[in-house]
Amino acid sequence: MFNPEVEAASRTEIEERQRTRLQTTVRTVYEKVPFYRNKFAEEGTFPEDIVDISDITKLPFTKKQDLRDQYPFGLFAVPTEDVVRIHGSSGTSGKPTVVGYTKNDLKAWATIVARAIVAAGGTKSDILHNAYGYGLFTGGLGIHCGAEELGAATVPVSGGNTERQITLIQDFKPKGICGTPSYILNVAEKMEDMGIDTRELGLKYGIFGAEPWSEGMRKTLEEKLNLKAVDIYGLSEIMGPGVSIECHEAQDGLHIADDHFLVEVIDPKTLEPVAEGEDGELVFTSLTKEALPIIRYRTGDIASITRERCQCGRTTTRMSRVKGRTDDMMILRGVNVFPSEMERVLLEIKGLVPHYQIHRVMNGTMEGVRLHVEIGKRLYKEVGSDLKHDLVKQLKKEIQQQIKSACLVSIETVIQEPNSIPRSEGKAIRIVDARKVDSVGV
Ligand code: DLL
Q: Which class does domain 1-326 fall in?
């Protein structure tokens, strides 16, 4: 562990630290951020009402729209002269959600990410190939500063320019690799096309996240690259990568840095807390942030948490993989369906590769799904590039049956030739809203 005294502290110690830090944060936002002062007043809550961490439920939620409304710096609790870094996440509205960090924030973030890299199996002697995008996105620089804090030799390659990535991986022989799972898969497949033995690269661990991915995708990446793949989670509004990470020892839930972030899980409809172990929307409150302290931020991410001790010895709260986003959940004939569930099913089917897109379509007045998947190269060769071949028809039938039994919905399926689904250099676009554009197959 990078910080054993914190990562393996007793639950009493953790909660005591959380309590005092929560009280400080609440006092700070009340004094420094008019938005929160007004919101607290509306709820009739004042800083002195927060006696224990369970009192957090007396506080109002913060939503992404609040950050948009306060664009760019309205939620900052310090003057810009104390801000040393600004990041943002790209929004559909064109303007990014802006987040800021003081020197102390960057120091805390680097420490959290250093812990995360160690949890993933990294050491200070490693070379770490960092293929997360550098820029407004927090992935590149977030991992970078954590790796430097640890003392690892960081290769700031960023996303894209896949051929150059491949050369650097072959020449530098990094032990660790970071990037979105979809992009790293893309890099691995390109290497295979070039005849490179991807299992002999010398990689030991991969730190993959920033987008939903499944156990099937983990298996694919671990087999292709002969490494241990761990899931890293984070969001810019809370900090960036490192809010939580799986440990390589157990790969069983993501350890939340709960000395810096207080997690809750709520029912997104009633906004009431759900029981430990039950799925709901993750809500985070920052406990140490200076530039942009944030109270009860509704992430839109669906997961569950547990406070059971992990076999690795860490005592932190752990969250499950993110199962989907509240806004990605589709309701098809009354059934809730998450795209990640479809990925899980797809990856268990032989002859497919983990590239897919879910098109939301209208069939008359009914909403439906048209699933675009890619046939694997081996099967494509076997059927002589004929997508009308019986084996392809059989594959299509199998997909539809498996999705029906796992997700309880009937879907359309389009099987496409290899390399026809757009490849990502960062976060993959898995869902295409074709409800207004068209309702016929391609
Ligand atoms: O994606 C931060 C990050 C960078 C995390 C690198 C991990 C690695 P944003 O661009 O603000 O920040 O996007 C945050 O991405 O609310 C989730 O919906 C999704 N997300 C992030 N990590 C995971 C993950 C970064 N491991 C949003 N699994 C979050 C599933 C994830 N979804």
A: alpha beta
